[in-house]
Amino acid sequence: MIRLYHNALNYKKKKMLDIDGKTHEMLIDNYISNLKIKKWENNYAIAEKTIQLFRHFIDTINWSTTIELLNQLREYGFQITSALPLQFIVGNIIRRILNIVREEYTAARKSSEEEIDVQDSLHKIVTSEDDVDDYNSIVPELKLSIFEHLDEFQIEIESSNEDISKQALEHIHSNEIILTVGKSSEVEMFLKEAAKDRIFEVFITECSPLNHGRQLALNLSKHKIQSTLIPDSTMFGIMSRVNKVIIGVDSVMANGGLRTFNGCHAVALAAAHYSVPVIVLAPMYKLSSRYLCSHNQDAFNEFVSPAGVLNYSDSVISKVDVYNPTYDYVPPENVTLFISNNGGHSPSYVYRLLSEIYHPLDYDLSVQNK
Fold it and tell me: The whole model's pTM is what?
């Protein structure tokens, strides 16, 4: 009778796991579909939805040890990032969540253990720091600690643009001429904050053929900021008059390079020619652990309709191949300073920031932890 009872319990448990697994697969498929149809246009919305999805996974996955949770989250993360290779933000948020789980586990373990006695030898202290945890211990209340940390992470993302804009007065001075490219929410808030106490002029390149710069010029003019919309082809001619180039970014690569608006590389080269500093506004959640291995890398760029470049009614269209890339790669040597919600950093410091927010074991999500 007892054996039958245990068998019934095991069958019920397995059935519940199958139901949860199917539910998770449906949520993943729906999430991927929404991103592919660009339901969430800006990076902040994508980050928020990713946190919500993985928060649900953490709450509903049947796990007892941290390694079980990590492996399941990594499996889901690998499935999502493989389907969305161009969405760097998604991979960034997933790796940050995995690091949060690891941090909370380590903090809980340390608080439960006795503090190192002051009489312990230096050798014992040093060697204890090199111990590698296998995440197999059961830690009570770990889920609650993870959720609290995720709440803090979400607040950090929500306030990142505001934290960046608070540094505007340190970098923009009166009577300066600023050049920017296209439209970036970080750049817009940064310039509006500086305009409260400074008078300056802004040149905005159109960022053709999408012409995102027009919207930024309109928004700045509504706040009485002197702004001039210029064609992309004229930016080299006026660069000698410019004091600073301030641009937004889609992602910061692991070597300090940028994946950003098409046309930014030309602007960065012109700025280097005239020794004009290039300042990049990038929240920490846009910092990626990936590198640009090849300029032909399919997972780096995406291409949109060439209709804005060449009209379909033109007879030459059948004789040429027209590519209209969305992003440009700007190498780290063309960047002067990164401004994040944590302050200013040089491109060479990006490797240090990576080690602080991501765990090395999570760079490759396809490899399961043992």
Answer: 0.86
